[in-house]
Here is the input.
Amino acid sequence: MNRLKISLLAVLIIPVLSDAAATGEVKAPPPVPGYTRNLLSPSIDGLKEKVLYYASKNPGKKPLLIFLHGAGGHKADIRTVQSLFAKGFSRNNLVCNVVRPQSEKGWPAGSIDQLLDYMIANHDIDERRIYVAGYSMGGAGT
Here is the structure.
């Protein structure tokens, strides 16, 4: 009976996966209330081309959270990633911009410094309230 369920599940799921792959569709995550989701291209050595940025819609300068992923996070398609931090801030009526870069080989300090300079120069960031968080390899990058 279990083999039948597994076979049936495979028959139902595999065509769906192959259709999405064949069309090249990318399913963006649902919007986060109070935030605008952007893909930035800051051209920073040591980071992948695209950087995920959730900008609070509140006016004025805002704090910035730089979130560094763990060792496996570089494999995620940044176009489909959602920031759980932005969701949490939104749910609790907190205001904080969130940026999530991607790196394949650790977090070089110079790259994070360049990203920070880019964010301050191009976005409404309160320079007195900048935070860096991460887990696993990302924790080492903090």
User: Anything to note?
Assistant: The radius of gyration is 18 Å.
